[in-house]
Amino acid sequence: MLPFEITTKSEEETLQWAKTFAKTLKIGDAIAFYGNLGAGKTLITRGICQALNYSGTVCSPTYTILHEYPNDPPIFHLDLYRLESNSDLEEVGLSHCLESNGITLIEWAERLENRIGITHTVHIEILNDNYRKIIVQEKNPEQP
Ligand SMILES: Nc1ncnc2c1ncn2[C@@H]1O[C@H](COP(=O)(O)OP(=O)(O)O)[C@@H](O)[C@H]1O
Ligand SMILES: [Mg+2]
Fold first, then answer.
1. Which of 43, 67, 111, 138 sits CB 3.0–4.6 Å from 1 for a disulfide?
2. E strands of 40-117, at which residues?
């Protein structure tokens, strides 16, 4: 389980990186994204969806918390920004996503109190207007 790290210099470079990263994913994977507003969480999500051949719109489900994109494999896109407690996570249906043989992408994973089921973390740091440091780590989904 090797972490890897990249610094991108533009939105396009991050998008390309996201598509490459997507190729390493498999059914059942759940990726937790960490990073401030404007870091690039939604952009990377969009790149992953494109690489999984989903051609519809991908936007942050901030108000609805969860979008399920009809695709093969199904893609679950969550944005936990508005959540405060772990109890809400059940209402949101995170466990349903994790059990559904799809790919689950979670923005604002800082809100998760329990990371069981998460297979990768992606931390995005804003270095300046156009530079982003991206750190990916695989994790054992059985550990919190
Ligand atoms: N290297 C980069 N990687 C990703 N986004 C970048 C980069 N440079 C600038 N940006 C800009 O940062 C913003 C990222 O937005 P978004 O993906 O919605 O962030 P988040 O979902 O983390 O709030 C976009 O406006 C994008 O154009
Ligand atoms: Mg977003």
1. 138
2. 66-69, 75-79, 103-107
Dist CA 86 CA 89 (whole Å): 5
Looking from the CA of residue 37, the nearest atom of ligand 1 is: 23
Pick the residue whose CA is nearest to atom 17 on ligand 1.
40
**What confidence category does residue 117 fall into, taking pLDDT thresholds of 50, 70 and 90?**
very high
Percent of the chain past pLDDT 90, that is, above it, reads 81
The yes-or-no verdict on residue 46 having pLDDT over 70 is yes
Can you tell me the mean pLDDT for 57-71? 89
Nearest CA to ligand 1 atom 1: 10
Task: Break the chain into its structural domains and give their ranges.
Answer: 4-138
Per-residue pLDDT at 90 exceeds 90: no
Cα of 60 to ligand 1 centre, how many Å? 12
Task: From the CA of 14, give the closest atom in ligand 1.
Answer: 3
- With 0-12 / 13-18 / 19 or more C-beta atoms within 10 angstroms meaning exposed / middle / buried, residue 133 is middle
